[in-house]
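Amino Acid Chain and Its Fold in Token Form
===========================================
Scope: a single protein chain, as residues and as a discrete description of its fold.
Amino acid sequence: labelled as such and written in the usual single-letter residue code.
Position: the record begins directly beneath this header, with no further notes in between.
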Amino acid sequence: MKEEKIRKNIEFRAVYRKGKSFSNSLLVLYIYKNHKELNRLGISVSKKVGKSVVRSRVKRLISESYRLNKDNIKVGYDLVFIARNASNDKSFFEIERALKNLFKKAGLSINEKTIDFNNQVL
């Protein structure tokens, strides 16, 4: 688990500088090929999003959405999610939908089926 996280500032900067970005109204995703057999995840939430309780909640929502969907994306990338201000009062399902949308935009999705709130395939 520990090796699946991006923690150091230099690693974040490398993904920002060399990677490619995709965005929607709630999140920004930077991806960079890491030539490893696993994906590494970094989450950045600015103080503009809210106080520490709000920022931690947004981080937990993003990491849980990623955990539940990581089997449906390609392997070998460094992924950095940046939460936008609009994400501070959103539900888990809205964050998950935004995350899946970014995976689809980036071409990382393996399973192209999208499931809505009622577990119906769209």
Observations:
- The first helix runs from residue 9 to 18.
- Residues 21 and 30 are 4 Å apart (CA to CA).
- The chain is about 35% helix and 20% strand.
- The mean pLDDT is 90.
